[in-house]
Amino acid sequence: MEPYRFITRMAQRRFWPTLAAVLLVQVLALLLLLAQSGAPLLVYQGF
Amino acid sequence: MEITSITFLIPVILLGTLHPLLRALAWRQAALAGLNLVCAAILLRTWPAAAALLAFLASGYAMALLLRRRPRRAYLAGYLLLLVGTFAYLKNYSFLELLLPSGLLGRGLVWVGISYMLFRQIHFLVDQYQGNDDPLDPWTYLHYQISIFSLVSGPITRYQDFHEDWHRLEPTWASRAELLTAYARIWIGVIKVLALGALCNHLYILAEPLWTAGSSLTELQRWSRAACMFYAYPLYIYFNFSGYCDIVIGLGRLYGLRVPENFHKPFLSRNMIEFWTRWHITLGAWIKDYLYTPALRATLTWFPRTGANLAFACYFLAFFVAGVWHGSSWNFVLYGLLQGLGVSAAKLWEMFLTRWLGREGHQAYLASRPLRWAATGFNFHYFCLTCVVFGLNVPALRQLAATLTARP
Fold this sequence. Notes:
The complex is a heterodimer.
Chain A: H1 5-13, H2 15-35
Helix pairs in contact in A: 1-2
Chain B: H1 6-18, H2 25-44, H3 47-69, H4 73-90, H5 114-129, H6 138-146, H7 148-151, H8 159-166, H9 176-206, H10 219-254, H11 272-275, H12 281-302, H13 311-325, H14 330-367, H15 369-391, H16 394-405
Helix pairs in contact in B: 3-5, 4-5, 9-10, 10-15, 12-13, 13-14, 14-15
Protein backbone atom coordinates (compact mmCIF):
# COMPACT_ATOMS: atom_id res chain seq x y z
CA MET A 1 0.00 0.00 0.00
CA GLU A 2 1.60 3.23 -1.14
CA PRO A 3 -0.79 6.18 -1.07
CA TYR A 4 1.44 8.44 -3.17
CA ARG A 5 2.30 5.90 -5.85
CA PHE A 6 0.40 8.01 -8.37
CA ILE A 7 3.13 10.67 -8.17
CA THR A 8 5.78 8.08 -9.10
CA ARG A 9 3.60 6.87 -12.00
CA MET A 10 3.03 10.45 -13.21
CA ALA A 11 6.75 11.19 -12.97
CA GLN A 12 7.56 8.06 -14.97
CA ARG A 13 5.16 9.07 -17.75
CA ARG A 14 5.59 12.86 -17.80
CA PHE A 15 8.58 13.89 -15.77
CA TRP A 16 8.80 17.63 -16.47
CA PRO A 17 5.13 18.53 -15.78
CA THR A 18 5.33 16.48 -12.56
CA LEU A 19 8.53 18.28 -11.58
CA ALA A 20 6.82 21.62 -12.20
CA ALA A 21 3.87 20.58 -10.00
CA VAL A 22 6.18 19.40 -7.21
CA LEU A 23 8.14 22.68 -7.38
CA LEU A 24 4.88 24.60 -7.06
CA VAL A 25 3.93 22.59 -3.97
CA GLN A 26 7.45 23.15 -2.62
CA VAL A 27 7.19 26.93 -3.01
CA LEU A 28 3.82 26.90 -1.23
CA ALA A 29 5.23 24.77 1.60
CA LEU A 30 8.30 27.00 1.93
CA LEU A 31 6.09 30.09 2.14
CA LEU A 32 4.10 28.41 4.90
CA LEU A 33 7.28 27.49 6.75
CA LEU A 34 8.55 31.05 6.50
CA ALA A 35 5.22 32.56 7.51
CA GLN A 36 4.64 30.50 10.64
CA SER A 37 5.63 31.99 13.95
CA GLY A 38 6.78 29.06 16.05
CA ALA A 39 6.05 25.65 14.58
CA PRO A 40 2.91 24.02 15.97
CA LEU A 41 3.68 21.04 18.17
CA LEU A 42 2.94 17.68 16.59
CA VAL A 43 -0.13 16.19 18.26
CA TYR A 44 1.51 12.80 18.69
CA GLN A 45 4.83 14.14 19.90
CA GLY A 46 5.87 13.02 23.34
CA PHE A 47 3.46 10.12 23.66
CA MET B 1 13.89 21.39 17.35
CA GLU B 2 10.67 20.83 15.40
CA ILE B 3 10.37 18.46 12.44
CA THR B 4 8.10 21.02 10.75
CA SER B 5 10.55 23.91 10.98
CA ILE B 6 12.71 25.36 8.25
CA THR B 7 15.82 25.01 10.43
CA PHE B 8 15.33 21.25 10.53
CA LEU B 9 13.89 20.54 7.10
CA ILE B 10 16.25 22.46 4.81
CA PRO B 11 19.56 21.04 6.17
CA VAL B 12 18.12 17.51 6.41
CA ILE B 13 16.75 17.63 2.83
CA LEU B 14 20.03 19.02 1.49
CA LEU B 15 22.06 16.38 3.31
CA GLY B 16 19.63 13.69 2.15
CA THR B 17 19.98 14.83 -1.46
CA LEU B 18 23.80 14.68 -1.24
CA HIS B 19 23.79 11.49 0.86
CA PRO B 20 23.76 9.10 -2.16
CA LEU B 21 27.01 10.72 -3.42
CA LEU B 22 28.79 8.76 -0.69
CA ARG B 23 29.72 5.61 -2.57
CA ALA B 24 30.61 3.33 0.34
CA LEU B 25 27.83 2.00 2.54
CA ALA B 26 29.97 2.59 5.63
CA TRP B 27 30.17 6.31 4.80
CA ARG B 28 26.42 6.56 4.19
CA GLN B 29 25.81 4.80 7.53
CA ALA B 30 28.26 7.11 9.27
CA ALA B 31 26.56 10.24 7.86
CA LEU B 32 23.10 9.04 8.90
CA ALA B 33 24.41 7.96 12.30
CA GLY B 34 25.86 11.45 12.79
CA LEU B 35 22.49 13.01 11.94
CA ASN B 36 20.68 10.67 14.35
CA LEU B 37 23.09 11.39 17.20
CA VAL B 38 23.02 15.18 16.72
CA CYS B 39 19.19 15.24 16.60
CA ALA B 40 18.90 12.93 19.62
CA ALA B 41 21.31 15.14 21.61
CA ILE B 42 19.24 18.24 20.74
CA LEU B 43 15.96 16.55 21.61
CA LEU B 44 17.11 14.99 24.90
CA ARG B 45 18.10 18.35 26.40
CA THR B 46 19.09 17.15 29.91
CA TRP B 47 21.77 14.80 31.28
CA PRO B 48 19.34 12.79 33.46
CA ALA B 49 17.19 12.11 30.37
CA ALA B 50 20.30 11.06 28.40
CA ALA B 51 21.42 8.76 31.24
CA ALA B 52 17.94 7.21 31.50
CA LEU B 53 17.85 6.64 27.73
CA LEU B 54 21.27 4.99 27.79
CA ALA B 55 20.16 2.70 30.65
CA PHE B 56 16.99 1.85 28.70
CA LEU B 57 18.94 1.01 25.53
CA ALA B 58 21.73 -0.91 27.29
CA SER B 59 19.28 -3.00 29.31
CA GLY B 60 17.25 -3.82 26.18
CA TYR B 61 20.29 -4.91 24.22
CA ALA B 62 21.68 -6.97 27.12
CA MET B 63 18.29 -8.67 27.51
CA ALA B 64 18.22 -9.46 23.77
CA LEU B 65 21.62 -11.17 24.05
CA LEU B 66 20.42 -13.14 27.08
CA LEU B 67 17.20 -14.22 25.34
CA ARG B 68 19.16 -15.42 22.32
CA ARG B 69 21.28 -17.68 24.52
CA ARG B 70 18.55 -18.70 26.98
CA PRO B 71 15.06 -18.02 25.65
CA ARG B 72 13.19 -18.39 28.94
CA ARG B 73 9.74 -16.92 29.39
CA ALA B 74 10.52 -15.87 32.98
CA TYR B 75 13.38 -13.62 31.84
CA LEU B 76 11.24 -11.94 29.20
CA ALA B 77 8.20 -11.55 31.48
CA GLY B 78 10.31 -10.19 34.36
CA TYR B 79 12.06 -7.64 32.17
CA LEU B 80 8.87 -6.51 30.45
CA LEU B 81 7.11 -6.06 33.81
CA LEU B 82 10.01 -3.96 35.05
CA LEU B 83 10.10 -1.99 31.80
CA VAL B 84 6.37 -1.24 31.67
CA GLY B 85 6.29 -0.47 35.44
CA THR B 86 9.19 1.98 35.10
CA PHE B 87 7.53 3.56 32.05
CA ALA B 88 4.23 4.08 33.93
CA TYR B 89 6.16 5.53 36.88
CA LEU B 90 8.24 7.91 34.73
CA LYS B 91 5.19 9.07 32.78
CA ASN B 92 3.45 9.85 36.04
CA TYR B 93 0.18 8.09 35.17
CA SER B 94 -2.78 9.57 37.03
CA PHE B 95 -4.13 6.17 38.12
CA LEU B 96 -0.91 5.62 40.11
CA GLU B 97 -2.30 8.17 42.59
CA LEU B 98 -4.70 5.42 43.65
CA LEU B 99 -1.90 2.89 44.21
CA LEU B 100 1.09 4.87 45.53
CA PRO B 101 1.53 7.48 48.26
CA SER B 102 2.11 10.95 46.79
CA GLY B 103 5.77 10.99 47.94
CA LEU B 104 6.53 7.99 45.75
CA LEU B 105 4.93 9.29 42.57
CA GLY B 106 7.12 9.74 39.48
CA ARG B 107 8.78 13.02 38.68
CA GLY B 108 7.91 12.98 35.00
CA LEU B 109 11.43 12.16 33.73
CA VAL B 110 10.55 11.45 30.11
CA TRP B 111 12.21 12.10 26.79
CA VAL B 112 10.73 12.69 23.35
CA GLY B 113 9.44 9.48 21.78
CA ILE B 114 9.70 7.35 24.96
CA SER B 115 6.33 5.66 24.28
CA TYR B 116 7.35 4.67 20.75
CA MET B 117 10.69 3.40 22.04
CA LEU B 118 8.88 1.27 24.60
CA PHE B 119 6.79 -0.41 21.88
CA ARG B 120 9.84 -0.93 19.66
CA GLN B 121 11.71 -2.44 22.64
CA ILE B 122 8.86 -4.85 23.43
CA HIS B 123 8.63 -5.94 19.77
CA PHE B 124 12.41 -6.35 19.56
CA LEU B 125 12.64 -8.50 22.70
CA VAL B 126 9.57 -10.65 22.04
CA ASP B 127 10.95 -11.40 18.57
CA GLN B 128 14.32 -12.34 20.09
CA TYR B 129 12.54 -14.67 22.51
CA GLN B 130 10.57 -16.22 19.64
CA GLY B 131 13.78 -17.05 17.80
CA ASN B 132 14.29 -14.15 15.39
CA ASP B 133 17.69 -14.85 13.87
CA ASP B 134 18.43 -11.46 12.30
CA PRO B 135 22.06 -10.51 12.97
CA LEU B 136 22.29 -8.47 16.15
CA ASP B 137 24.76 -5.65 16.67
CA PRO B 138 24.64 -2.72 19.09
CA TRP B 139 25.23 -0.07 16.40
CA THR B 140 22.19 -1.12 14.30
CA TYR B 141 20.06 -1.50 17.44
CA LEU B 142 21.05 1.99 18.66
CA HIS B 143 20.04 3.59 15.36
CA TYR B 144 16.89 1.48 15.17
CA GLN B 145 15.82 3.12 18.43
CA ILE B 146 17.06 6.67 17.89
CA SER B 147 16.51 7.05 14.12
CA ILE B 148 15.30 10.63 13.61
CA PHE B 149 12.73 9.33 11.11
CA SER B 150 10.82 7.50 13.85
CA LEU B 151 12.10 9.00 17.10
CA VAL B 152 9.72 11.89 17.65
CA SER B 153 6.29 10.40 16.91
CA GLY B 154 6.85 6.98 15.39
CA PRO B 155 5.96 5.16 13.16
CA ILE B 156 6.70 1.94 15.06
CA THR B 157 9.25 0.44 12.69
CA ARG B 158 10.04 -3.28 12.88
CA TYR B 159 13.66 -4.24 13.64
CA GLN B 160 13.84 -6.70 10.73
CA ASP B 161 12.85 -4.02 8.20
CA PHE B 162 15.19 -1.43 9.69
CA HIS B 163 18.07 -3.90 9.80
CA GLU B 164 17.59 -4.74 6.11
CA ASP B 165 17.50 -1.06 5.10
CA TRP B 166 20.37 0.01 7.35
CA HIS B 167 22.66 -2.51 5.71
CA ARG B 168 21.78 -1.29 2.22
CA LEU B 169 20.79 2.41 2.41
CA GLU B 170 20.07 2.29 -1.31
CA PRO B 171 20.50 5.70 -2.94
CA THR B 172 17.23 7.22 -4.18
CA TRP B 173 19.03 8.71 -7.17
CA ALA B 174 18.65 5.35 -8.93
CA SER B 175 15.19 6.55 -10.06
CA ARG B 176 14.37 10.20 -10.65
CA ALA B 177 10.64 9.38 -10.32
CA GLU B 178 11.24 7.95 -6.83
CA LEU B 179 13.31 10.99 -5.90
CA LEU B 180 10.53 13.32 -7.04
CA THR B 181 7.97 11.32 -5.04
CA ALA B 182 10.13 11.65 -1.93
CA TYR B 183 10.30 15.45 -2.32
CA ALA B 184 6.57 15.65 -3.09
CA ARG B 185 5.72 13.72 0.07
CA ILE B 186 7.83 16.00 2.25
CA TRP B 187 6.18 19.15 0.92
CA ILE B 188 2.66 17.69 0.91
CA GLY B 189 3.30 16.71 4.54
CA VAL B 190 4.36 20.27 5.38
CA ILE B 191 1.17 21.65 3.79
CA LYS B 192 -0.95 19.11 5.69
CA VAL B 193 0.59 20.12 9.04
CA LEU B 194 0.94 23.85 8.55
CA ALA B 195 -2.11 24.69 6.42
CA LEU B 196 -4.83 22.01 6.67
CA GLY B 197 -3.99 20.92 10.24
CA ALA B 198 -3.58 24.51 11.43
CA LEU B 199 -6.93 25.48 9.85
CA CYS B 200 -8.74 22.61 11.62
CA ASN B 201 -6.98 23.51 14.87
CA HIS B 202 -8.20 27.09 14.46
CA LEU B 203 -11.79 25.85 14.05
CA TYR B 204 -11.35 23.64 17.11
CA ILE B 205 -10.04 26.53 19.23
CA LEU B 206 -13.16 28.54 18.30
CA ALA B 207 -15.05 26.15 20.57
CA GLU B 208 -12.76 26.78 23.55
CA PRO B 209 -15.31 28.92 25.48
CA LEU B 210 -17.41 25.76 25.76
CA TRP B 211 -14.98 24.20 28.22
CA THR B 212 -13.66 27.32 29.91
CA ALA B 213 -15.84 28.64 32.73
CA GLY B 214 -17.85 31.84 32.37
CA SER B 215 -19.00 31.38 28.80
CA SER B 216 -21.96 33.55 27.81
CA LEU B 217 -22.80 32.09 24.40
CA THR B 218 -26.29 31.76 22.97
CA GLU B 219 -27.70 28.29 22.39
CA LEU B 220 -27.10 28.50 18.63
CA GLN B 221 -23.49 29.61 19.19
CA ARG B 222 -22.93 26.82 21.68
CA TRP B 223 -24.16 24.05 19.38
CA SER B 224 -22.54 25.41 16.24
CA ARG B 225 -19.19 25.63 18.04
CA ALA B 226 -19.71 22.15 19.49
CA ALA B 227 -20.21 20.86 15.94
CA CYS B 228 -17.03 22.71 14.89
CA MET B 229 -15.10 21.01 17.67
CA PHE B 230 -16.64 17.60 17.00
CA TYR B 231 -15.58 17.50 13.34
CA ALA B 232 -12.51 19.75 13.31
CA TYR B 233 -10.49 18.00 16.04
CA PRO B 234 -10.32 14.53 14.39
CA LEU B 235 -9.38 16.21 11.10
CA TYR B 236 -6.74 18.26 12.91
CA ILE B 237 -5.19 15.10 14.40
CA TYR B 238 -5.36 13.40 11.01
CA PHE B 239 -3.69 16.22 9.04
CA ASN B 240 -1.14 16.88 11.75
CA PHE B 241 -0.09 13.26 12.30
CA SER B 242 -0.37 11.99 8.71
CA GLY B 243 1.45 15.15 7.53
CA TYR B 244 4.28 14.40 9.97
CA CYS B 245 4.36 10.81 8.67
CA ASP B 246 4.54 12.03 5.06
CA ILE B 247 7.52 14.22 5.98
CA VAL B 248 9.49 11.44 7.72
CA ILE B 249 8.61 8.87 5.03
CA GLY B 250 9.86 11.28 2.32
CA LEU B 251 13.00 12.18 4.28
CA GLY B 252 13.66 8.52 5.03
CA ARG B 253 13.53 7.71 1.32
CA LEU B 254 16.18 10.34 0.57
CA TYR B 255 18.50 8.48 2.95
CA GLY B 256 17.52 5.00 1.70
CA LEU B 257 15.26 4.04 4.64
CA ARG B 258 11.73 2.74 4.05
CA VAL B 259 9.75 4.27 6.91
CA PRO B 260 6.46 2.31 7.11
CA GLU B 261 3.15 3.80 6.00
CA ASN B 262 0.92 4.87 8.89
CA PHE B 263 -2.35 6.04 7.26
CA HIS B 264 -4.56 4.71 4.50
CA LYS B 265 -7.87 6.62 4.09
CA PRO B 266 -8.91 5.91 7.71
CA PHE B 267 -12.24 7.77 7.55
CA LEU B 268 -13.49 5.30 4.93
CA SER B 269 -13.44 2.43 7.47
CA ARG B 270 -16.75 0.67 8.09
CA ASN B 271 -15.99 -0.24 11.72
CA MET B 272 -13.40 0.35 14.43
CA ILE B 273 -11.56 -2.91 13.69
CA GLU B 274 -11.00 -1.82 10.09
CA PHE B 275 -10.27 1.70 11.31
CA TRP B 276 -7.23 0.51 13.27
CA THR B 277 -5.82 -1.11 10.12
CA ARG B 278 -5.98 2.29 8.36
CA TRP B 279 -5.26 4.80 11.14
CA HIS B 280 -1.88 4.74 12.90
CA ILE B 281 -1.32 1.46 11.05
CA THR B 282 1.95 0.58 12.78
CA LEU B 283 0.32 0.96 16.21
CA GLY B 284 -2.69 -1.13 15.09
CA ALA B 285 -0.35 -3.87 13.80
CA TRP B 286 1.68 -3.74 17.03
CA ILE B 287 -1.47 -4.09 19.12
CA LYS B 288 -2.59 -7.06 17.01
CA ASP B 289 0.78 -8.84 17.24
CA TYR B 290 1.78 -8.12 20.82
CA LEU B 291 -1.50 -7.64 22.71
CA TYR B 292 -4.51 -9.08 20.87
CA THR B 293 -3.00 -12.30 19.49
CA PRO B 294 -1.24 -13.32 22.75
CA ALA B 295 -4.42 -12.50 24.73
CA LEU B 296 -6.56 -14.58 22.33
CA ARG B 297 -4.07 -17.47 22.43
CA ALA B 298 -4.10 -17.43 26.25
CA THR B 299 -7.93 -17.32 26.26
CA LEU B 300 -8.13 -20.31 23.90
CA THR B 301 -5.71 -22.24 26.13
CA TRP B 302 -7.61 -21.49 29.33
CA PHE B 303 -11.12 -21.81 27.84
CA PRO B 304 -10.81 -24.23 24.91
CA ARG B 305 -14.61 -24.53 24.42
CA THR B 306 -15.74 -20.94 24.72
CA GLY B 307 -12.46 -19.17 23.89
CA ALA B 308 -13.45 -18.22 20.31
CA ASN B 309 -16.53 -16.40 21.62
CA LEU B 310 -14.33 -14.35 23.91
CA ALA B 311 -12.41 -12.78 21.01
CA PHE B 312 -14.31 -9.54 21.57
CA ALA B 313 -13.01 -9.38 25.17
CA CYS B 314 -9.43 -9.68 23.84
CA TYR B 315 -10.12 -6.81 21.43
CA PHE B 316 -11.43 -4.78 24.34
CA LEU B 317 -8.38 -5.44 26.48
CA ALA B 318 -5.89 -4.73 23.67
CA PHE B 319 -7.41 -1.43 22.60
CA PHE B 320 -8.04 -0.32 26.16
CA VAL B 321 -4.30 -0.71 26.85
CA ALA B 322 -3.51 1.10 23.58
CA GLY B 323 -5.79 3.97 24.59
CA VAL B 324 -4.15 4.32 27.98
CA TRP B 325 -0.72 4.31 26.30
CA HIS B 326 -1.63 7.60 24.59
CA GLY B 327 -1.43 9.69 27.74
CA SER B 328 -1.15 9.74 31.51
CA SER B 329 -4.33 11.59 32.54
CA TRP B 330 -7.76 10.10 33.27
CA ASN B 331 -9.32 11.15 29.95
CA PHE B 332 -7.00 8.68 28.22
CA VAL B 333 -8.40 5.88 30.38
CA LEU B 334 -11.82 6.93 29.08
CA TYR B 335 -10.43 7.11 25.54
CA GLY B 336 -9.07 3.55 25.95
CA LEU B 337 -12.47 2.35 27.19
CA LEU B 338 -14.20 3.90 24.17
CA GLN B 339 -11.69 2.35 21.76
CA GLY B 340 -12.10 -1.03 23.47
CA LEU B 341 -15.86 -0.65 23.33
CA GLY B 342 -15.78 0.29 19.63
CA VAL B 343 -13.66 -2.65 18.47
CA SER B 344 -15.37 -5.23 20.71
CA ALA B 345 -18.83 -4.01 19.57
CA ALA B 346 -17.68 -4.38 15.94
CA LYS B 347 -16.52 -7.95 16.64
CA LEU B 348 -19.77 -8.83 18.44
CA TRP B 349 -21.82 -7.33 15.57
CA GLU B 350 -19.84 -9.39 13.04
CA MET B 351 -20.38 -12.58 15.09
CA PHE B 352 -24.09 -11.80 15.43
CA LEU B 353 -24.53 -11.13 11.68
CA THR B 354 -22.74 -14.34 10.72
CA ARG B 355 -25.10 -16.35 12.96
CA TRP B 356 -28.21 -14.45 11.94
CA LEU B 357 -27.65 -14.17 8.17
CA GLY B 358 -25.34 -17.14 7.58
CA ARG B 359 -22.06 -16.85 5.69
CA GLU B 360 -23.65 -15.99 2.33
CA GLY B 361 -25.98 -13.44 3.87
CA HIS B 362 -23.06 -11.85 5.68
CA GLN B 363 -21.12 -11.63 2.41
CA ALA B 364 -24.12 -9.92 0.78
CA TYR B 365 -24.32 -7.51 3.73
CA LEU B 366 -20.63 -6.65 3.29
CA ALA B 367 -21.05 -6.17 -0.47
CA SER B 368 -24.01 -3.76 -0.14
CA ARG B 369 -22.87 -0.24 -1.03
CA PRO B 370 -25.60 1.73 0.87
CA LEU B 371 -24.92 -0.32 3.99
CA ARG B 372 -21.21 0.31 3.62
CA TRP B 373 -21.77 4.08 3.45
CA ALA B 374 -24.12 3.97 6.45
CA ALA B 375 -21.58 1.97 8.47
CA THR B 376 -18.75 4.30 7.38
CA GLY B 377 -20.73 7.37 8.46
CA PHE B 378 -21.59 5.82 11.81
CA ASN B 379 -17.99 4.77 12.40
CA PHE B 380 -16.68 8.24 11.53
CA HIS B 381 -19.02 9.83 14.07
CA TYR B 382 -18.06 7.31 16.72
CA PHE B 383 -14.40 8.13 16.17
CA CYS B 384 -15.16 11.86 16.38
CA LEU B 385 -16.82 11.19 19.73
CA THR B 386 -13.73 9.39 21.05
CA CYS B 387 -11.64 12.38 19.92
CA VAL B 388 -13.61 14.71 22.21
CA VAL B 389 -12.33 12.63 25.13
CA PHE B 390 -8.85 12.49 23.61
CA GLY B 391 -8.51 16.26 23.44
CA LEU B 392 -9.93 17.38 26.79
CA ASN B 393 -9.04 16.45 30.36
CA VAL B 394 -11.76 15.40 32.81
CA PRO B 395 -12.49 18.87 34.34
CA ALA B 396 -12.78 20.34 30.81
CA LEU B 397 -15.11 17.50 29.77
CA ARG B 398 -17.31 18.21 32.82
CA GLN B 399 -17.42 21.90 31.94
CA LEU B 400 -18.25 21.08 28.32
CA ALA B 401 -21.15 18.85 29.40
CA ALA B 402 -22.37 21.55 31.82
CA THR B 403 -22.23 24.25 29.13
CA LEU B 404 -24.06 22.17 26.54
CA THR B 405 -26.81 21.07 28.93
CA ALA B 406 -27.27 24.48 30.61
CA ARG B 407 -30.66 26.14 30.12
CA PRO B 408 -30.56 29.51 28.34
